[in-house]
Amino acid sequence: MTGGWPSMPRVDRILEHPGYIREMEQIVSCEADRIFCGHGWEHLLDVARIAYIHVLERRLPITKDLVYAAALLHDIGRAAQYREGVDHAEAGAAFAERILPEAGFTPEERKLIKVAISGHRQTSSRETSDALGDILSRADKQSRMCWRCPAADDCYWPEDKKNRTILY
Ligand SMILES: [Fe+2]
Ligand SMILES: [Fe+2]
Question: What is the pTM of this model?
């Protein structure tokens, strides 16, 4: 049910993928007692929506479902990180590579998403870059509500990197 609004069938296929659901459930359960920013549904949607605002503001030729797919998958490697201690960006990119063909994304789109996920941890010096990966990385940081964070005293983020107000 979309209330008449256009839906994103390829994104729905990610959300319905049993492997994706399993990894997300593991992340949510592993982070149940986490005091720092989490990587559950709210975070993923915050990142998707902020990233898409960037695309709209800059009138970039990036489709909405590509942005949402990248955002919904960008931290999926956290499950593997909690299980095996691997880098979550690389694990997430590998996971995306496995499920994106089933969701219907083209080889070119898969490459864009994969690059965006594997690079999302880098703090971007490319503040004005329009590449999907840089948009994702910016949205990831901008999604954090540092100004009201209950774990601020213990957070490893440097003070000058913390968000002091609402940008998006
Ligand atoms: Fe991440
Ligand atoms: Fe994230």
Answer: 0.94
